[in-house]
UniProtKB/TrEMBL annotation:
<dbReference type="InterPro" id="IPR001173">
    <property type="entry name" value="Glyco_trans_2-like"/>
</dbReference>
<dbReference type="InterPro" id="IPR019734">
    <property type="entry name" value="TPR_rpt"/>
</dbReference>
<dbReference type="Pfam" id="PF00535">
    <property type="entry name" value="Glycos_transf_2"/>
</dbReference>
<feature type="domain" description="Glycosyltransferase 2-like">
    <location>
        <begin position="3"/>
        <end position="119"/>
    </location>
</feature>
<keyword id="KW-0802">TPR repeat</keyword>
<dbReference type="InterPro" id="IPR011990">
    <property type="entry name" value="TPR-like_helical_dom_sf"/>
</dbReference>
<protein>
    <submittedName>
        <fullName>Glycosyl transferase family 2</fullName>
    </submittedName>
</protein>
<dbReference type="Pfam" id="PF13181">
    <property type="entry name" value="TPR_8"/>
</dbReference>
<keyword id="KW-0808">Transferase</keyword>
<dbReference type="GO" id="GO:0016740">
    <property type="term" value="F:transferase activity"/>
</dbReference>
<feature type="repeat" description="TPR">
    <location>
        <begin position="316"/>
        <end position="349"/>
    </location>
</feature>
<dbReference type="InterPro" id="IPR029044">
    <property type="entry name" value="Nucleotide-diphossugar_trans"/>
</dbReference>
Length: 592
């Protein structure tokens, strides 16, 4: 008999997916609720779960152990509400329970990160099935562990290639549940008790890394690394990989490469480290060395499950990275081969398809490139949507329009309306574009659509009330920027934003700049530049210089990047590289 044990709180958006994936393989569902005020409990009961209530004490182990105490099965399946077992792999689970010599099984957890599943993911091994024994209990208030207690009591543990997809680290879920703040509060309490604990320091570093504070993250990782003193744990290589990532973000490239080389000697089977070394060489423009690293990754394949962290480094990700390097080398044939190999291994990753399409346009004339791109599609409405977007991004607006019209024959939703409106906008057919933008009043693409709608309406003298209503309801920062943009255009009035932190407003302003420059509405663009006086960010001239450079306005780019250095002492690696390129171009002209 197999019992599912879970602890939950406010998981109405996830629980049904999880329970649906296991309902046919478990004999008992134990749900311990720690204070939900949504429909979580009702969903659990609809699957026949036994629901118990537990007062939350800022201790994950205590709550989990309470759930284990309720299980009647010989075996226990451990899941979180935002987990889902792979559809094919779930069939393998019953067979595992027949082996009396094994006490626990480790499955691979694929944690999706970013905005949506499938874009990117990280890998970890986690205990998922245990024998129901009273001595097998969780320890640790957070990032609770059960493997060590099992091993301590002589239990035998096996790794099995069964995948569990985890949705909890998607940006929306982290923001909605305020996971970072919750985790760090508990970790700080644990570190006060034991400041040198390597596991707690590792986890605190992970939280800071997720927040983008790489300096703090690296300091915690370094403390964890020192405390381990060459002791190899289940997270040692993941710690090293994170340290290399932080050093890269902190522009300590030599230090990062040194750690790569040292770690490759100690852990020769960990493909992740070789992959990161390749990325560092690419960043240093050491292109042949980068290619060599990525080829080695492909030869190595993915690392052992226990060391696996960055998914795909032994396959699709290495091929993709090779494609990027070959594009920089202008070796488009090799880039195309690399991207195709990557796409074969990960056909659901549309980013690869976009990169492949870009390579086709670099290599072939327009008609041949389009023909090559279309060979990767099946003719479905969804395929025409993607194809339209690819053609749009490559500046083939008329062909993009034909493809989105094909999709609209049978697929009418926010994405098709938005792509049609956006394409019409870039063809300067503003009145027609407004008609499609007006069809989107909520949900996906509503913010982008409303901003584009406002630009089209300002260019044609129309009232902007309708799109402004959408922004005011759900996107207040964009509403404030567009309100001032409208005043600036119509009345020449400019007023500053009251907020001290204007970063989010700066991003919206530059989104408007980008669109106006793209559609070559330079009069309106010149007016809109006055909006930079509303914000107090020091890097606005740096961002403006980069925008000019992307659009081929090299003289303006040089002027703004130079002003950024003189007035604000602001320049970064990308800006410095752009200035080097522009200076070399000027030198070539003088020599000529």
């Amino acid at each position: 008999m197999l019992s599912l044990c879970m602890i939950v709180k406010n998981e109405e958006n996830n629980l049904g997916r999880c329970l649906e994936s296991v309902k046919d393989i478990v004999d008992e569902i134990i749900i311990v609720d720690t204070g939900s005020n949504d429909n979580t409990v009702d969903i659990a009961k609809s699957f026949g779960a036994d629901v118990f209530y537990y007062k939350w004490k800022n201790d994950f182990s205590a709550a989990r152990n309470f759930s284990l105490d309720k299980a009647k099965g010989d075996w226990i399946l451990l899941m979180d509400a935002d987990d889902e077992i792979d559809r094919e792999d779930r069939k393998k689970i019953k067979k595992l329970l027949e082996d009396e010599k094994i006490d626990a099984y480790l499955f691979e957890t694929i944690s999706y990160v970013g905005d949506k599943p499938g874009t990117d993911a990280l890998s970890n091994l986690n205990v998922r099935i245990i024998k129901n024994k009273p001595e097998y209990r969780f320890v640790g208030a957070i990032h609770e562990q059960i493997l060590m207690p099992i091993l301590k009591h002589g239990g035998n543990v096996a790794e099995v290639p069964i995948k569990v997809y985890h949705y909890g680290y998607l940006n929306k879920n982290i923001k909605d549940k305020d996971k970072r703040n919750r985790n760090m509060t508990i970790l700080k309490k644990e570190l006060r008790k034991n400041p040198d604990n390597p596991f707690h320091n590792f986890n605190m570093g992970t939280e800071y890394m997720a927040l983008g504070n790489y300096e703090c993250a690296y300091n915690y990782f370094k403390k964890s690394y020192s405390a381990l003193k060459n002791v190899k744990t289940g997270y040692t290589t993941k710690l090293i990989v994170r340290m290399i990532m932080c050093l890269n973000q902190l522009n300590k490239i030599d230090e990062a490469l040194s750690l790569c080389n040292k770690s490759i000697e100690e852990y020769p089977n960990v493909t992740d480290i070789v992959f990161l070394k390749g990325m560092l060489h690419h960043r240093l423009n050491q292109l042949q060395e980068a290619i060599g690293c990525f080829r080695k990754c492909i030869d190595m394949g993915d690392p052992p499950l226990i060391d696996r962290f960055i998914t795909g480094v032994g396959g699709f990700k290495a091929y993709y990275a090779m494609g990027e390097v070959y594009m920089d080398m202008k070796e488009y044939d090799n880039a195309i081969i690399s991207y195709i190999n990557s796409l074969k291994l990960n056909p659901l990753n549309k980013v690869i398809l976009y990169k492949l399409s870009n390579a086709y346009f670099k290599k072939h004339d327009e008609n041949t490139a389009v023909e090559k791109i279309m060979s990767h599609f099946d003719g479905s409405p969804e395929a025409f949507v993607i194809l339209s977007d690819i053609l749009f991004l490559n500046g083939r607006y008329q062909k993009s329009l034909k493809c989105i019209d094909m999709a609209l024959n049978s697929l009418k939703n926010n994405i098709t309306y938005y792509i049609k409106g956006r394409t019409l906008m870039y063809l300067h057919r503003y009145n027609e574009a407004v008609e499609y933008f007006d069809m989107i009043d909520s949900g996906e693409y509503s913010c982008d659509s409303a901003i584009d709608n406002i630009i089209c309406r300002l260019l044609t003298g129309k009232n902007i009330k309708k799109p402004m209503t959408i922004l005011k309801k759900d996107f207040i920062e964009a509403y404030r920027v567009c309100f001032k943009f409208d005043l600036l255009v119509k009345e020449g009035v400019l007023s500053p934003l009251d907020e001290k932190d204007t970063r989010i407003y700066t991003d919206i302003i530059f989104l408007i700049f980008e669109k106006l420059f793209d559609i070559q509405e330079f009069d309106l663009f010149e007016k809109s530049l006055n909006m930079l006086n509303m914000v107090n960010e020091k890097d606005v001239l740096l961002k403006l210089g980069k925008l000019y450079f992307r659009h081929g306005a090299y003289k303006l780019a040089e002027e703004e990047l130079t002003r950024s250095m003189k007035l604000f002492d602001e320049i970064d690696d990308e800006g410095f590289m752009i200035l080097k390129i522009l200076c070399s171009q000027n030198t070539e002209k003088i020599d000529a």
